[in-house]
Amino acid sequence: MSDLLVFAAAGAGLWALRASAIVPAGGRVLPEPTTRALGYARHAVLAALITAAVAGGHGVGGLVTPSPQLAAAIVAGAVAWWTGGMLRTAAAGIGTVLLLSSW
Amino acid sequence: MTTALSPVDTPPAHGHLILDPLLAGARDMVPVLVALIPIAVTLGASVAASGLDPRIGWTGAALVYGASPHATAVAMLSNGAAAAAVVVAVLVLGARSVIYSVGLVSRMSGQPAWFRWTAPYLLVDPLFALVTSRTTERDSPRWVRWYYLGAGLAIWVTWMPALGLGTVVGPVLPGNEGANFALPALLIAFLVPGIRSRPALAAVVVGGLTGAAGGGLPNGLGLALGAIAGTAAGVLCERRTS
């Protein structure tokens, strides 16, 4: 399946989620435990994506071996925690990688 | 942030039925747009650095409309994830849209079908936040409808060109390592502020470790395993703490 078709399929699914209560305007609500579980799934997916990018295919060892990406992830995480700002977080992470890579 | 008058049932005496709420929505969104532009450019640069065809990556932003789901889809596709895994991940990340959808039901009653079918496409975090804070159930459906479209379209017509600009200028900007880290940095920005409980932290730790451990598996299997293991950890931790 081409990348564009994957985007289209994912976009259609995303629209269906957003429309789930608006289109019928009936206000059907997911059970509370399901909603909470989906929240944890969101956290897990994002964490897996981040650690996979930071580890760079070196497994869990990639998360304990010093590297510009690991340092940048820690700095970006701290900035995100303290400020909650997307732009500041991205700037901190990118800046750290650039700084350490230039050494 | 200023808000134009919110009419109840009737439009302003000297106003325009459509333009007034449309422009009010766009105007109220301006501060958010200022913050969104650099993020869109950064995300565009990460699309260019991901290895995907930039044109497909940009078109994907229109199809998977929303920074977090789009960034995730780009990251997974560039990692060679299976199509089904990408779709599932996008749906998981978009799950909170269901909450937004439910939160807008009271403002959608009395709206025409064309609007109820098109409005969900634009429903991203800042739009939900603005519309639910700046309109009430007492506002006329027409006002809410055009206010929503004004604010939502303001985001779209800002986001898409800015992201396109990022795909163009990203490759010529110095510091390729920095561009490569733009996507993980944005994902960190999406993730960290939401960690507000032990179960959420458990989901992050277990999901992250599993994702890293399975980083070498084909078709993004490590990501899927990380999602499953992290979710299970979150649910189990919640049961133990409650």
What is the end-to-end distance of chain B?
Answer: 41 Å
User: Which protein chains make the most extensive interface, counting residues with beta carbons within 8 Å of the other chain's beta carbons?
Assistant: A-B, 76 and 98 residues
Strand content of chain A: under 5%
The main sheet of chain A comes to: none
Task: Please explain how this structure is put together.
The complex is a heterodimer of chains A (about 100) and B (about 240). Chain A is mainly alpha-helical and about 100 residues long. Chain A has 4 helices and no strands. In chain A, α3 packs antiparallel against α4. Chain A is elongated, with a radius of gyration of 19 Å. The mean pLDDT of chain A is about 85. Chain B folds into 2 domains: about 170 residues, no CATH class; about 50 residues. Chain B has 12 helices and no strands. Chain B is globular and about 60 Å long. Chain B starts with 18 loop residues before the first helix and ends with a helix. With about 240 residues, chain B is mainly α. Chains A and B meet through α1, α2, α3 and α4 of A and α1, α2, α3, α4 and α5 of B.
Offer a concise description of the structure.
With 103 residues, chain A is an all-alpha fold. Chain A contains 4 helices and no strands.
Topology:
The complex is a heterodimer of chains A (103) and B (242).
Chain A: H1 3-19, H2 32-55, H3 68-83, H4 86-101
Chain B: H1 19-50, H2 54-63, H3 67-78, H4 83-93, H5 96-103, H6 105-108, H7 113-118, H8 125-134, H9 141-169, H10 176-191, H11 198-213, H12 221-241
Helix pairs in contact in B: 1-3, 1-8, 1-9, 1-10, 2-9, 3-4, 3-10, 11-12
Supply database-style keywords.
heterodimer; A: mainly alpha; 4 helices; 71% helix; elongated; B: 242 residues; 2 domains; 12 helices; globular
